[in-house]
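Anyone have C-alpha cells for 2Fe-2S ferredoxin-type domain-containing protein? Sequence:
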Amino acid sequence: MEISTHQEPFIYVNDKRYEITRDCDPEMSLNDFLRDTLNLKGTKVMCREAGCGCCTVCAVYKHPATGEIESKPVNSCVTPLYSAAGWHIVTIEGIGGRSQSAGYHPIQASLADGFGSQCGYCSPGFVMSAYSQLRDNPKATKLEVEHFFDGNICRCTGYRPILDSMKSFACDAGKAGGCLEVEA
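Reply: yep, here.
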C-alpha cells in the first residue's frame, strides 16, 4: 500500500490559510474564489478581461528566479486560482475598513477625504493597486504613482481627485512626513 504525501494546494487570503480542494473547478478565477467562495465582495468584477482594474488585489509571493519576496497588483478576474497557490493575497477587506478596530487604511482614508470615490466601484482597485506598489516601492515619486494606475479605469471620470489623493503618498509630494509606510 502506497501512502500519498501530496497535500492540497493552498492560498493565504488576508493572513488566513485556505485549501484549494480537489473538487475546485480548474478554471475558477481568483476573483470568483474571493467573491463566491470566501464572500469577500469588496473585490469587484466587471470586464473579466483585465481591462478595467476593479478586481485588483495585492499578491505577495516569492519570485521564482531571485527568491525575493515581492508584492504586485494582480487582476484577480484573469488569474486562475490554481496559479495563485502558495501566494498571500491581500484584499480591500484585509487592509482596513469601517468595522475594523484599526479603521481605514491611510490610502482608503485619503481617497475618501480627497473626494476620489464617486460611484465607488473602481475605488477598491485603485486602492489595492496603490497599496501593492507602495509595498514594493515605498519611496515612489508622483510620476511613478501616476503610472501605478495604467490598468485602472474610472467610468465616472474622477481621475483628478483619485490621482491627487494617491500622489499625496509620493516622496516628492511636498508634505511633511514624506512617504507612507503601507503596513501602518
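The mean pLDDT is 88.
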